[in-house]
Amino acid sequence: xxxxxxxxxxxxxxxxxxxxxxxxNFDPSVFIKSGSGARVIDEDGREYVDYLIGSxxxxxxxxxxxxxxxxxxxxxxxxxxxxxxxxxxxxxEEICRAVPGxxxxxxxxxxxxxxxxxxxxxRAYTGRDKIVKFEGGYHGMSAEAQMSLAPExxxxxxxxxxxxxxxxxxxxxxxLIAPFNDFDYIRSLMAEWGPKVxxxxxxxxxxxxxxxxxxxxxxREEADKYxxxxxxxxxxxxxxxxxxxxxxxxxVTPDITTLGKAIGGGFPLxxxxxxxEIMAHFDKTQVGAEGWLMQLGTLSGNPVAAAAGLKTLExxxxxxxxxxxxxxxxxxxxxxxxxxxxxxxGYEIVGDPTLFEVVxxxxxxxxxxxxxxxxxxxxxxxxxxxxxxxIFKAAGKxxxxxxxxxxxxxxxxxxIQKAAADLT
Length: 424
Ligand SMILES: Cc1ncc(COP(=O)(O)O)c(C=O)c1O
What we know:
The chain has 424 residues and is of the alpha/beta class. The chain has 2 domains: 31-63 and 320-421, Alpha-Beta Complex (Aspartate Aminotransferase, domain 1); 66-316, Aspartate Aminotransferase, domain 2 (3-Layer(aba) Sandwich). The chain has 15 helices and 13 strands. The strands form 3 sheets. A 7-stranded mixed beta sheet has the order 4-10-9-8-7-5-6, with helices on both faces. Helix 3 runs parallel beside helix 11 (303-317), helix 6 packs parallel to helix 7 (215-226) and helix 14 (376-388) packs across helix 15 (406-421). The longest helix is centred in the last third of the chain and has 21 residues, at 321-341. The radius of gyration is 22 Å and the shape is globular. The protein binds pyridoxal-5'-phosphate.
């Protein structure tokens, strides 16, 4: 009899061809065979309710019929051209309409690339080199973004600590690291360095941590005061917190916005969006060789990705979608609260109903260090039981989605109750 492939079989094969046996992004012992709605099935045949949803993009679930139809419809016309195509222009128009700070965009293939170009663009526009980044803020894998992303040791602000080997110290020297949500710190940092700062780059909701009231407004004011650009990394929050992203929800408009995940409908497509004046730096005819940023990519504006993204956005625009997404997230938050209240352990559910996580702590969670000093061993145990009980999620984030069903909620509630009851 032919041996069925299992997670374990694939893990053996993966270890031979992949360093660490994985793609670097998730637990390499699980191999996802398929997904449908808000569920995924692994190579052992185990089904999970999926709160990872591709690390964010699959807001509409894994097999939305309309998105699939849009993809099938475009496939016979060709897969990629390295040339302008109408679908990607339509998607660009829609993104610029949706994002308050957007007039023009440039496509790239990943959120990390969008962030890398956003920082470079700010440097080109201002003629300055320093970038302010927040400790624990995630902006992809560029050398700049690797500064104080998840530092284990505490350095004095604003010293940047690389979280990756292979980065020259000269990169760290141009980065200024600040604690998120600290009003006084950013004021004093900008008072000292403001005239040399090209950009303040921030996740408007940092990983799961919401901005304190007025904090994003303060960043806007400080950027304006010193003539630097405010970059909102909305790779996660774009088209999730609301259709217009975090900037619409929190009523603060950045100079540059980076987007990914949802706008590609599950395909590798990301973008940076800004005013035409700022984006002129991608056009040599407007700014000359001195001010020009060379930027291109083989798959930029890929028509299949654009078709999936365009249909995804069309569906998200329909009445009630964000009410449903919020209600779905709120429901999981409420069941979590009920289960954890019964344990007596200190915890906070940090985030927004569209994106959140439990942090085991007795203190408010305002920045990276608050999460770092929480009871992470308890969080690990909690997440492990959730996985055993059929919940698929990353440590540190819960991504609700639109297609969650009553059946999915029932499994989720039982899993949360068990995970809470097993805590020590
Ligand atoms: C806030 C944020 N920025 C940038 C990125 C990088 O996006 P990508 O993985 O598409 O490079 C991510 C990825 O999760 C992210 O969460």
